[in-house]
Each structure stands twice: as structure tokens, then as C-alpha cells.
Amino acid sequence: MEINKKYNEMGKMKAIVYKEYGEPDVLQIVDLVKPLPKQNEVCIRVKAVSINFGDLLARNYKNISPKNFNMPFLFWIIAKISFGFSKPRINVLGNSFSGEIESVGNAVTLFKTGDKVFGYTGEKMGAYANYLCMPENGFLEILPSNIAYDEASIIPYGTSIALNLLRKANIQKGQKVLIVGASGGIGSAAVQLAKHLFEAEVTGVCSSKKTEFVKMLGADKVIDYQKEDFTKNKDKYDLIFDILGKGTLKHYKNSLKENGIYLLASFKMKKLLQMLWTSLRGRKRLICALVSPKIEDLHYIAKLIEEGKIKSIVNKSYPLEQTAEAHRYIENRKNSGNVVIIV
User: Fold this and answer.
1) What is the CA radius of gyration of the chain?
2) Among 198, 238, 289, 294, which is least packed by CB within 10 angstroms?
3) In this predicted model, which residue has the larger pLDDT, 286 or 178?
4) Phi then psi for 260, rounded to 5 degrees?
């Protein structure tokens, strides 16, 4: 606390910076100038920030080939331009966070100093730091009273994306939903939303290490893909939600009901063409979905948290100065849930 106070008085802050792509060790803690809010901005003292797939991808993007990228080539090019070709253009990662508003610009009316908030900075990143500034009309919401900072930092990105994707499938009460990749940021949110909001019968697919985590989220059944291939049992589903898009319609088709949907959050061009084909022919459809969450979604998610329909489970937390170790922990597949940086 005394260290943070000292840097605050000096107009400085601690941040995790990377100036070249590579392994976790490229992440270094440095002193930066503390940002000041513009007239329509708030300055947030970051309390916690979750580490998500996008952070790992951005940190080592130079070594991510189009083949290893989970989206079409054009998206890889766009991301390459955004992140930087040979060196990173954005030097401070982290985008899903929670914290407390320390100061506000003269024109701000939606928030006040002292408000506890959680939010998402998107491609601008910047949350691996003591402070960050963002517009008051950005993806930012008051923190519900029944959730802690570390738990809240996990929610904004994954839950808003999962909510919008599941809406594309028009899930009905009592339908059977299978989620492939149920332990990730989007997948873990999808399990809870499908179960507690849409009132579906939910099966989660994950690795052996993460089965207990997915059960805790409320899944009716959990399949360990290292021990069982769900396509070889007789169960059929109204929706198969494939987070990373590693499966195929051909492989999953027999596990879909007659009017079933195969929904993908990540996809290649071939699956886009398959989506067009299935929309014209056959009752089993493939849907490749892109979504852009709106602030109204975060308002709604805050309400779901207050009602106990959404919760977060933190597997492990690290202090800011150990962010590189946190990245290494995830990449070595040691985590059985969400990993959070405590700022």
C-alpha cells in the first residue's frame, strides 16, 4: 500500500510492459506515467485483471501463423496490423478488469469517485497496470455488491461474448446443449448461462483436470474428452457449441438432433462456406457467429450476478510483478480454472 501511495504522489504507476514478442519472460514490470482522465473519461485504480486467451495470443503474436490462428486469413491480417508486425504496437496487455474509480473528468455524469466497477477495454488493452483511463460510456459497469474484485475481473469479456453467441441459437427451456471447451472464459460462462438463464440441460466437454471445475459451474454432465468421445455415444443435442471450432460438422452431425445447430465462436473460411450450404439445404445447421457486445449486455450481466445466476471461480491469483509466471502457469496447462492478477 505504501509503495502504491508513493507512486501515486509522484504521478507514476507500475505496469507490466512488453516491447517484443515472445515467451512469458518478455513481460517486465516498469514505471510509467500515471494517466489523467480527459473530460469524458474516468481514471480507474485497477484491483484485479484476468488473464485470457487474447493476452497469450497478443504476447506471442509474431509466432502465430495463419494456420494456427482460429479465424480466416483476413482476420489474421487485421490482427497483425492491430498488434504490430515485428514488434507490439500495444505494450500493456490485459482487458477484463475490476477496480475503483479514483477520479473523473469534468464532463462525466455516469460515475463518481469511489465507485467500484468492472469492465472491458477491448483491443486497447492496458489493464496490466495500477491505473487506466477509459470513456464513461465505455464497456464499464458498477460492481454488484455480492462479488469480489478478483471474481468480477473474469466476467466482462467471456460472459458478454457467451451471452450474445447463445442468443444466436435461440435456446428453448429443456433443450439439450453440449459445450465443447467448457472450462475456458467463454465456455465457463456459456455453461452457466445455458443452465441458469436459458434453463437447458447442459453437458460440458473439457480435459480431465478441469472436470470438477465445470461441475461446479452447474453442468448437468461433464465429459472428459481424454477418456470419452461424445460422438460415439447415443446422446443427441439441440445445440453443440464449439468454442475454439476444432471440430467439424461431419464429425458432430450424428450427435445433433434433426433440427440441431452446430455453433462456432471460432472458424475458418471452409466452415463459413459450410454455413451457407446448410442454410440452404438440410435441417441440421452450422452457424459461424461474430458478435459485438454492447454496454446493455454488461448491465444485464450485472443483474444476473446479483441474482446469483452467474459466478466466478478463481483457480489461482498472482501479484502484478509475477504476471510472467502467471502466463507460464496457464501455458503449461496447470490451471483448472481462471487465473487472475491482483494489482
Assistant:
1) 20
2) 294
3) 178
4) -75, 160
Supply the pTM of this predicted model.
0.87
Spatial separation of the C-alpha atoms in residues 65 and 110, rounded to whole Å: 42
Q: What is the dihedral of CA 21, 331, 162, 308, to 10 degrees?
A: -130
Give the helix/strand (H/E) hosting 3: helix 2-9
Task: Choose the CATH number for 2-154+312-342 among 3.20.20.80, 1.20.1530.20, 3.50.7.10, 3.90.180.10.
Answer: 3.90.180.10
Q: Which residue has the cell 505504501?
A: 2
Give the whole-angstrom CA distance, residue 59 versus residue 61: 6
- Intervals of CATH 3.40.50.720 along the chain: 158-288
Locate 19 and state its grid cell: 516491447
292-334 pLDDT, tens digit per residue, is 889 999 999 999 999 988 988 898 999 999 999 999 999 987 7
Q: Which three cell numbers stand for residue 280?
A: 440452404
